[in-house]
Amino acid sequence: MCTVTCVAPVNIAVIKYWGKRDENLILPVNDSISATLDMDHLCAKTTVTASPDFKENRIWLNGKEESMQNSRLQNCLREIKKRAEVPNEMENWKIHIRSENNFPTAAGLASSAAGYACLATALAKLYKTEGDISGIARAGSGSACRSIYGGFVRWYSGNDPTGIDSIARPIAPATHWSEIRILILVVSDSKKKVSSAEGMKRTLETSKFLKYKVEKIIPDRINEMQKAILNKDFTTFAELTMRDSNEMHAACLAAYPPCVYMNDISHSIVDLVHKYNDAKGSVKAAYTFDAGSNATIFLKERDVSEFVGVLNNFLPMSENHLNGYLKGIPIKTALPSSDLLCKISLSKQEPGRLKYIICTKVGDGPKQLPDSEAFSMMD
Ligand code: DP6
Predict the structure, then answer these.
(1) What is the ipTM metric for this complex?
(2) For the chain, which has fewer Cβ within 10 Å, the N-terminal or C-terminal residue?
(3) pLDDT, tens digit (0-9, with 9 covering 90-100), for 296-323
(4) Eight-class DSSP state of 154
(5) Nearest CA to ligand 1 atom 5
(6) Rounded to two decimals, what is the model's pTM?
(7) Nearest C-alpha to atom 12 of ligand 1 is from which residue?
């Protein structure tokens, strides 16, 4: 029997991946850039066990057994088998996979990136595969390839039809820009969204604006973003992040029928960030939205207390949520000055429109854990 346990991080794109040039191989129409989030607050943990006694391959996700007949999972296994030198005695051994997130699925955060990055890392260790494994994670879910590295990461779309050059590469490690903090504002929303896979397909097929963005906007923007990260130029980083998110959602609205991910609270957060930046006289915070209503805010450590104070004023927490409303890195909220609140001048929302806030930072890539931390495979 052979067991490997790994953890892998979530990532948030600041230049979005939205559209595939090859649906089966999961090859994107443009390069994207993301920040990897600290695994102390958000991660997937996966144990893979191979044994001659197992009768079939099986998988449990967050405690529930799921089917292995899932094309993305099969793609991932096929990719690893292509590259791995499976030792002879392990050739016919079946595997059991158990994977869990350290954050509630109900948060509506994309967990597939961390999940597939973790699976690819664990399988690569199990079968002793060397070299870049971002292509293996990509076979499971596109954005997962960026979770293979820590810090700031670029996924190169590549040109080759086989996808060989569609891989992720680190731009800078987490330590490079350590004062950056990331707030995930979990918005209460029960509406079922169109999945990313379906939404990006529909947008690419029906929105001329997405084509324009991919061909005319992203080629320059991606290099400007990389430069802003390397120079720790927050103003440029923040502006490009917000523009890219706005344009992704504009393209989604230009799809036919439109894909609507942001709700009225998401839009109030956009408004609040712009008004906060205007009131401060410089760009202090940036928002970005994925295929859902939750907002991710990038800001510097020294601005977190005041920004959360401003949020609490205009988007107050529900009275039932006093405990556990602020998760992750502890925040001492500062009461913002009345002068600042006056300058922002927004109407207050009713309490409870935000479920909770997770404060985190940029973190490292996946790592292997000792066997003592493995999930048990008794089932
Ligand atoms: C909006 O990676 O979930 O989060 O490749 O079909 O699995 P598939 O899509 P997925 O899409 C993520 C889209 C996004 C933007 C991003 O992370 O770049």
Answers:
(1) 0.99
(2) C
(3) 999 999 999 999 999 999 999 988 766 7
(4) E
(5) 142
(6) 0.97
(7) 143
